[in-house]
Amino acid sequence: xxxxxxxxxxxxxxxxxxxxxxxxxxxxxxxxxxxxxxxxxxxxxxxxxxxxxxxxxxxxxxxxxxxxxxxxxxxxxxxxxxxxxxxxxxxxxxxxxxxxxxxxxxxxxxxxxxxxxxxxxxxxxxxxxxxxxxxxxxxxxxxxxxxxxxxxxxxxxxxxxxxxxxxxxxxxxxxxxxxxxxxxxxxxxxxxxxxxxxxxxxxxxxxxxxxxxxxxxxxxxxxxxxxxxxxxxxxxxxxxxxxxxxxxxxxxxxxxxxxxxxxxxxxxxxxxxxxxxxxxxxxxxxxxxxxxxxxxxxxxxxxxxxxxxxxxxxxxxxxxxxxxxxxxxxxxxxxxxxxxxxxxxxxxxxxxxxxxxxxxxxxxxxxxxxxxxxxxxxxxxxxxxxxxxxxxxxxxxxxxxxxxxxxxxxxxxxxxxxxxxxxxxxxxxxxxxxxxxxxxxxx
Length: 443
Hints:
By secondary structure, this protein is an alpha+beta fold. It folds into five domains: 6-107, von Willebrand factor, type A domain (Rossmann fold); 121-193, Immunoglobulins (Immunoglobulin-like); 203-284, Immunoglobulin-like (Sandwich), CATH 2.60.40; 289-384, Immunoglobulin-like (Sandwich); 386-443, no CATH class. 16% of the residues lie in helices and 41% in strands. The protein has a five-stranded antiparallel beta sheet, with no helix packed on it. It starts with 5 loop residues before the first helix and ends with a strand. The relative contact order is 0.06. One of its GO terms (cellular component) is extracellular region.
């Protein structure tokens, strides 16, 4: 029980409990019950398969949010009889069902089939021979077509055999013939019906959408599927591209897509029988922003401020920063794509200055982000700030005495006057002797 090094724990159980060296008897049914929260820090598929190859019946009880596909593959087949999902507090609910299932396994003393799917099943039988006393001949064929009989020879020390590439929803007649060199052992027979062919895909999910890629996932992934074909093309349009995916996988990432585009995605299952089943879904790539975000300013002195911005999306070659001063010449700075801030100087007191930052691309125009910055005698502010934001900025910069005065002044502001189409900016200055409002401006 637990989620740490489960693969190693399974290997330990195999060596310590289920081998001849550990004292395990070949003619005794073997059962493993794994209680887990559904996660493991190492691989469980290989050690679990080795256990099942030895004839061990594996029951799994998941108390967490484990991966259903991984757990259903690890448990003995079919998963409906060997895999349980239950909360820790509700374990008593499944106690009787699990106990009865284990008893059924232990009581089996003859040839029987387990792990039945639409295209396979595993045969198990008690030890009747050894490698020194003989071998087994296994014959199996569809009950309604005996001419399609297949024959396999199995070593005398084996007690199980996995049969695959079977027809779905078909009853098979199976005969196990022990060929002993010591005495006659009668054959054992059984009838096994494979499950109906599981239809795939029944669900297609689009996730991890980005400007140039998205992930396509589908379910279920039955053993009867040889491979999947993922066809995708933009809408509207007649062009499509194809991805081939192995039948054991249930997702793939589609790349090299156009941003802000709708695609038609079709997932087609190619069955081993030659049949095909397809399901389609629409997917949208995200818009690739060609605009910088969150242009910010930091006051570094009477006539200097620092402009900073967040990077733009896509393959940016650099940024151009233009400052249009109310008094004095405009300036244009070009910086590398790794630089996200510049210093702007010679900003005269009492002036309004427009600062714009535009990303530069090779194959598309960048969109500039602009802000108006007003320089006052002791304070820099942006023209598109609300009165409340301005009050908070000033309060952050002055003493506790000054904050009290600002609060007293702000109590007279009519903050409701700020609407969607007008922005009220309060210009607040301070002096060494106190704080008072200088002017109110509407932009």
